[in-house]
Design goal:
6-stranded mixed beta sheet, 12 helices, about 15% strand
Length: about 400
């Protein structure tokens, strides 16, 4: 290979390439090409153990050049040391509030109910785009502080309109598990609300627990429950059906409904004639009620358990308008007043996947990773840009007084 004379010095081509590489690298640094910093906050919602980032996805981000700050968390399913072991920097719990404006704040569930303006770009589920109660106060904090909300619920592939990452399968799976547990509990503990539940270390432990409860319910009822799942063809519905099958419920005891079955409009007698109703639809517009109080007061009702996986308690379009509050893992059910024979209770927990926090987090974060890797230029990525466009559209609907 010929040598090259450079400024009076003879240089081997490989040495020249090395020098050029170092020069280009230093030039980029001199133009303030500092790495993008992601800041994972500790979740504040009670019994929320999931995480938007996992040690696996954090390592992938660090390998790609990101700086990742991880708030120490007493509730996250992953130990702090699992993150520091892959190169993340541990920072104090709640320190996102004082992080530099250019840091991107990553979380899952909604922020605590505070009022100070938000200055950061925040990646999270905010639950304020569908007319939920208090949506104005939640959303207005971002424009008031010059911040941006990139809502995880609305990250969509522009070519298909499908969400790029979702907890739907795990939500349906966990909701169906609690619904079967509640059916059995009503039989073995009549008159008592379902006892509080905690997260499970893995799917096998959850299935074993549901099988035990289902067997106890069968012994009392002398039969299997009939379950109707609406939205059965979607991610959430598939999760609900799979749990029933893995728990040992015969396939013929599961009614799998989707758009074709509900096209005629409710209320539906088939729901009232089932023991358990698991609602798995994603709703953004008004449709006829699937059930309502009047339809459930008609003679012949068998229904005793409703699990509304969407849990949009304050959504004006809710097709299951028989309850008004969100339930929790500590108090999983709420009774429906005026329905006694049999009693009817509703499960409306809005973070059901946290019943299986490690598996839910791994699945969601892995699906989200290709898009997390584009956060260093999110304005020019069609998925993030779509979320930003929606944010701007929703901000434009805020009443003026909310922005003061």
């Amino acid at each position: 290979m010929n040598k090259i004379k450079l400024g009076g010095t003879v240089v081997h081509p490989i040495q020249l390439a090395s020098r050029l590489s170092k020069f280009i690298s230093s030039s980029f640094k001199s133009f303030n090409m500092s790495p993008t910093v992601l800041h994972l906050r500790s979740e504040d919602k009670p019994l929320e153990h999931r995480s938007a980032l996992t040690p696996t996805t954090t390592k992938a981000l660090i390998d790609a050049g990101y700086v990742v700050n991880i708030e120490k968390s007493p509730v996250r399913i992953f130990d702090d040391e699992e993150f520091s072991a892959v190169g993340a920097t541990l920072v104090p719990t709640g320190s996102w509030r004082d992080a530099p404006k250019e840091h991107i704040i990553v979380g899952l569930k909604e922020l605590p109910e505070e009022t100070f303006p938000l200055k950061h770009t925040s990646v999270q589920f905010a639950h304020c785009y569908k007319g939920q109660g208090g949506w104005e106060e939640v959303l207005a904090r971002f424009p008031r502080g010059g911040g941006t909300l990139l809502d995880l619920e609305f990250l969509q592939d522009p070519a298909t309109g499908r969400r790029v990452a979702a907890f739907g399968y795990q939500a349906g799976f966990s909701g169906s598990a609690l619904a079967l547990k509640n059916w059995a509990w009503q039989l073995t503990h009549p008159g008592e609300p379902l006892a509080g539940v905690e997260s499970y270390p893995n799917e096998d432990a959850l299935i074993a627990d549901v099988k035990k409860d289902l067997e106890a319910g069968r012994a009392k009822a002398g039969r299997d429950p009939r379950v109707i799942v609406i939205g059965a063809l979607g991610r959430c519905g598939r999760g609900a059906v799979d749990l029933c099958l893995k728990a040992g419920l015969p396939a013929e005891q599961i009614l799998k409904w989707d758009m074709a079955e509900t096209a005629k409009g409710g209320p539906f007698r088939e729901i009232a004639e089932s023991d358990i109703f698991v609602n798995c639809i994603y709703l953004a517009s008004k449709i006829p009620h699937f059930v309502n109080i009047d339809s459930l007061k008609e003679p012949g009702r068998q229904l005793s358990v409703v699990c509304d996986v969407s849990a949009d308690t304050t959504n004006p379009f809710n097709p299951v308008p028989i309850y008004t509050i969100a339930t929790t893992f500590s108090n999983p059910t709420v009774p429906v007043d005026g329905l006694e024979d049999p009693p009817l209770s509703v499960i409306s927990i809005d973070h059901l996947p946290s019943l299986l926090p490690r598996e839910s987090s791994e699945s969601f974060s892995n699906d989200l990773l290709p898009y997390l890797l584009k956060l260093n230029d999110w304005q020019n990525d069609p998925v993030w840009a779509g979320a930003y466009k929606l944010f701007q559209e929703k901000v434009a609907t805020l009443p003026k007084e909310a922005l003061n």
